[in-house]
């Protein structure tokens, strides 16, 4: 059977804070795959999904769900249970990548650079006193800092702290998305995203995308509001720094056991060292998302890339 005859399920939506972004990603990849001649069914991850899968038995699935519904391994596990091959990382390794401190720790153990951090639960601030803990964090890590939920994507709940007086509001914002936060040293440098794409010859890094948000912080608004961020593809880095960013993304893909396609976010500091921030196993596919920019800069077509990944997933399923 050729890819033109495939029936592909695209999962998008979900009941998360990133639902709107996911729907935009799902619509874009649906049109891209249809342009390659595939039959595509765009479905939400709801109570009607499993009966639909049982009735229609698609050849493969593409997960365009973002946040917990698409990246914590749960929907991947459901697809594994139903025997539907899918593009992307398996359910077990999704869990590793989804938890930011776990991913940072695994990469740091392999000698890769990442900002010094602490994880703290909401209860800790309540039990020990928020003011004392804020002072301890500033004394240990210095200022500025980044505060973010340990899980989640699209920079939801993430903010920079330049003065200790800013910390309470940053914590409130992060705790709105979970009971544990990650506080890490703020790294100054060039922010980049590097997509890793697996093909017959193994994984390769696509051109790095440099992000320059007008606000100075690549938050949710900067990511998804047209005109809020300037992108440079390839990133404006020298050859060595470009290689360092690519090597970091490839290492993250390997160490975390990722599969098919992933996107690593990093800061390249003043010394050209690529500092790991986090990794996405279900990268955004919207008009302002970095993965399509990297694909385009490589001279590739998004629909063809995913059609090939679908064939890899089906072959793997056999």
Automatic annotation (TrEMBL):
Binding site for Mg(2+) 1: 265, 278
Principal subcellular localisation of the protein: cytoplasm
Pathway annotation from the record: Cell wall biogenesis; peptidoglycan biosynthesis
Cofactor note: Binds 2 magnesium or manganese ions per subunit.
Enzyme Commission code: 6.3.2.4
Active site residues per record: 18, 154, 289
Root EC class: ligase
Cofactor requirement: Mg(2+); Mn(2+)
Record carries keyword Ligase: yes
Domain of life according to the entry: Bacteria
Subcellular location: Cytoplasm
Keyword presence, Ribosomal protein: no
Binding residues annotated for Mg(2+) 2, in chain numbering: 278
Residues annotated as domain ATP-grasp: 104-311
GO cellular component: cytoplasm
Keywords of this entry: ATP-binding, Cell shape, Cell wall biogenesis/degradation, Cytoplasm, Ligase, Magnesium, Manganese, Metal-binding, Nucleotide-binding, Peptidoglycan synthesis
MF (Gene Ontology): ATP binding; D-alanine-D-alanine ligase activity; metal ion binding
Catalytic activities: 2 D-alanine + ATP = D-alanyl-D-alanine + ADP + phosphate + H(+)
Function: Cell wall formation.
HAMAP family linked: Dala_Dala_lig (MF_00047)
Protein name (record): D-alanine--D-alanine ligase
Organism for this UniProt entry: Nakamurella leprariae
